[in-house]
Amino acid sequence: MTQPTDIRREHAARPLLLDLFCCAGGAAMGYRRAGFDVVGVDIRPRPNYPFAFIRADALEYLADLIATGEIERFALVHTSPPCQAGCALTVGTNRSKGWGGTHVDLVPPTRVLLEASGLPYVIEQPNGRAKIRKDLTLCGEQFSLGVLRHRNFELGRWSVTRPAHPKHRGRVRGWRHGEFFDGPYVAAYGNGGGKPSVPELQAAMGITWTDVREELTEAIPPAYTHWIGAQFLAQVRAGVTA
């Protein structure tokens, strides 16, 4: 496993970002393009993650970084805790299967550790997630993508002006209640109901380094975190963010 000292040596030239609950690296790629070096942490093996990767429990790893002082090597922490607990999307689409009510809510303990870290941070969650402060909402239409994929972001120890949310150009393509609707966006979740192929998902989201459907449907488009990371670094350069 990569140790913090090795990470520090490898990533000395650019600000370092910690990417917790990283999955396959949709967020990571955007931050990298914005100017960060990135270290990802996930409890599952992620062979498609494009940057330095540590397999570990994200919260245990963060707690250890705080306890040892190694957290100070990082400039920003991004987190994407599992969203199933209490999520209206999960409950609504899977109520008959009993899903959505038994998952552990990892957002509160994540926030506690992020506050203890002393660093600026980001918590990302989908629409329908009630227990997050919605400091920023991003949509694929803001970046001319082929998905809508609304995502909310809680920003700790820094802030940013919300960009305008343009009107959607049409519907998400797929079947709804026995009727097929065409539209300029694909549905980046699930398998049935006229869902897109893997190549269509890759093109719509701007993700090319994984062809695993589950990883694609769990990811956020790199364009989102490219924008967030660029805003953060601009504030650092201007002396606005510590």
Automatic annotation (TrEMBL):
Xref: Gene3D superfamilies: Vaccinia Virus protein VP39 (3.40.50.150)
Example of a GO MF term: methyltransferase activity
Keywords, comma-separated and alphabetical: Methyltransferase, Transferase
Tree of life domain: Bacteria
UniProt keyword annotation of Methyltransferase present: yes
InterPro entries reported for this sequence: SAM-dependent_MTases_sf
Protein name: DNA cytosine methyltransferase
Species for this entry: Streptomyces cinereoruber
